[in-house]
Amino acid sequence: GRLEAVTQQMGYHPQYLDSFLKTQHYLMHMDGPLPFDCRHYIAIMAAARHQCRYLVNLHVLQFLRAGGDPQWLRGLEFIPPKLRNLNEINKILAHRPWLITKEHIEKLLKISEWSWSLAELVHAVVLLAHCHALASFVFGCGCEQDEGLGGRGSLKPLSLGNQCFCENTAGNNCSQELLRINRKRSLDSCMELDSLRERMQRIHVETEGREELRLVQQDREEGEGQEVEVGVQGGTEHCSDLFAGLSPLADTDGEVTGATNLACYMQDPDFGYQDFSRRDEDQTQVFRVQDYSWEDHGFSLVNRLYSDIGHLLDEKFRMVDGLQSSAMAKRQGCEPSVFKRGIWNYIHCMFGIRYDDYDYAEVNQLLERMLKVYIKTVTCYPEKTNSEMFDRFWKQFKHSEKVHVNLLILEARMQAELLYALQAITQYMI
């Protein structure tokens, strides 16, 4: 249930890893507006948009450990309407964040039995953006291991056994508190695995029993031999039982296998990224950072509605900007800051965010074609990242530089989603 492969990759940049783990821990495990089980279910919904089994499986286990209702794992049709109403903003933020409007915010906040508070919604938005961006990193660094596709992942994690990378970098800027938390989680994972496995198997047996009784009753009503159909409504597949979409049972190696069908966590699965340049000109305008920026607007709003998260996010944005990349930039024939800004602004440009003080001709000069193809794929549709793209692009970079590029993608994408969502919330409040 830990982000083991992710922390191993981020461990090439331990200062950033320290900042990332603090944010991850705060979002998921510290005091905040949302219940703990809902936080993990929102993470499942976000990761499913990009078919990221690695993150879905992680949060399925943590959802159950937090006391979540196993019935929710049957899909969106089995969760409370309040949580299900988040699906639209999840879909838009993941693929076309420029479509977010104050009307979407108003719909969620309107007075009703299932309305969200502003604080809850801000927490949810940060979680969605965090998990969408983390899915890009997972695919970009090859952490997603899908046995059905032959275990893709050209960038192999470091061989560190079952330890979290953070445990091996005590002298490299990882705080002792994070090490303590990580070791405790490792111990908790070992102690809880058997009980979790027994619980899931018990639920499975109970569910099978109820399903058998239901089928017998239906056969009596409709006639012997009639098969039960699996209905599809609005792109969401209704699982016939709890484990049609999820099978978190242990395999022979003691590992927990997870989601086999992510469709039950999604609606409108065909909705995906579309080039911003193809947008309806009358519907959407270019987002100008001079009018609404993280530093001047987003930071203060998010920090006011969800205490301290703004400081953690800001530290993470600054940390990735401060990472050393002199060798990487030297290969491109420019200063490190120029190269990093070119990548960052290129990512924001794909989401319709522009900087008036930047010459976008630099992007084509700094970033070769295969680098741009790779960045766009990992940013906009990470699930399409494949080993051929790794092979064609990564040859000239060190492994730590490859991870650095993916960290830039992660943070630039997350900030882009937050800017659109927080601007819409601001417009609603005004």
Automatic annotation (TrEMBL):
- One of the record's GO cellular component terms: cytoplasm
Q: Which UniProt keywords apply?
A: Cytoplasm, Oxidoreductase
Q: Name one GO biological process term.
A: positive regulation of macroautophagy
Q: Which organism is it from?
A: Ptilonorhynchus violaceus
Q: Does the keyword Oxidoreductase apply?
A: yes
Q: Which family does it belong to?
A: Belongs to the sestrin family.
The reaction(s) annotated as catalysed by this protein in its Swiss-Prot or TrEMBL entry are: a hydroperoxide + L-cysteinyl-[protein] = S-hydroxy-L-cysteinyl-[protein] + an alcohol
User: Is Chloroplast a UniProt keyword of this protein?
Assistant: no
By which gene is this protein encoded? Sesn3_0
Drop me one GO molecular function for this one.
L-leucine binding
Q: What is this protein called?
A: SESN3 protein
Q: Where in the cell is it found?
A: Cytoplasm
Top-level taxon of origin: Eukaryota
Q: Which InterPro entries match?
A: AhpD-like, Sestrin
